[in-house]
């Protein structure tokens, strides 16, 4: 069962492009350093491994928020919508 | 009942400090442009109103993720931990 995941990251300038490119294979870009989307556990594992390979653990920071159900979840945007895909609000 | 909320924002350079200062009254800073924490509906409303007053709707972007239950929620950090407070992982 896919889980809803929000990834936020704060990485060194030199690694930002590669991190974004890797994360975009699995999640939707919604805002500066923020991606989200439905992802299977297997792909979430793959994403984490790929990010580990291209990042510096002592400098970079990633937070994965995962939610097993969307029933209790809501998402509200204020201001300009940056991400491309349309999510049910 | 407080809800768990994640706030991510992408705002104009001139407004970053004020936005962060306002958001920190209600949530914990965890990473560049990311705050989180338990917040009552009333305070969430206040936070949104205060942010609206100090931001430019046509330039700035805020996303509020709110979760009514933490039962299905998990949070995992990889790399350096930036935020100050300790959250159950």
How much strand of chain A? 35-45%
Low-pLDDT parts of chain A are none
Helix count from the secondary structure assignment of chain A: 2
User: Major sheet of chain A: order of its strands?
Assistant: 2-3-1-4
Largest interface: A-B, 38 and 38 residues
Q: Report mean pLDDT of chain A, rounded to a whole number.
A: 85
Structural class of chain A: alpha+beta
Which CATH architecture of chain A is right? Answer: 2-Layer Sandwich
The level of helicity of chain A is: 25-40%
In the CATH hierarchy, what is the class of chain A?
Alpha Beta
Would you tell me which CATH topology of chain A applies? Alpha-Beta Plaits
Give the SSE map:
2 copies of one chain form a homodimer.
Chain A: E1 3-10, H1 16-24, E2 28-31, E3 34-39, H2 41-54, E4 61-67, E5 73-79
Antiparallel strand pairs in A: 1-3, 1-4, 2-3
Give a description of the structure.
The structure is a homodimer of 89-residue chains. The radius of gyration of chain A is 13 Å and the shape is globular. Chain A has 89 residues and is α+β, with helices and mostly antiparallel strands. The model of chain A has no long low-confidence stretch (mean pLDDT 85). Chain A has helices at 16-24, 41-54, and strands at 3-10, 28-31, 34-39, 61-67, 73-79. Chain A is 26% helix and 36% strand. In chain A, α1 (16-24) runs antiparallel to α2 (41-54). Chain A has a single domain (3-67), classed as 2-Layer Sandwich (Alpha-Beta Plaits). The first copy, chain A, contains 2 helices and 5 strands. The first copy, chain A, has a 4-stranded antiparallel beta sheet. The longest helix of chain A is centred in the middle third of the chain and has 14 residues, at 41-54. Chains A, B: Its cofactor is Mg(2+). Chains A, B: GO terms for molecular function: hydrolase activity; metal ion binding; RNA endonuclease activity. Chains A, B: Pfam families: CRISPR_Cas2.
């Amino acid at each position: 069962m896919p889980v809803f995941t929000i990834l936020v990251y704060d990485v060194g300038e030199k690694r930002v492009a590669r991190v974004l490119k890797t994360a975009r294979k699995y999640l939707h870009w919604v805002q500066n350093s923020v991606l989200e989307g439905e992802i299977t556990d297997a792909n979430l594992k793959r994403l984490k491994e790929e990010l580990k390979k291209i990042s510096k653990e002592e400098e970079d920071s990633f937070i994965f928020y995962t939610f097993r159900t969307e029933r209790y979840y809501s998402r509200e945007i204020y201001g300009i919508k940056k991400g491309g895909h349309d999510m049910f609000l």
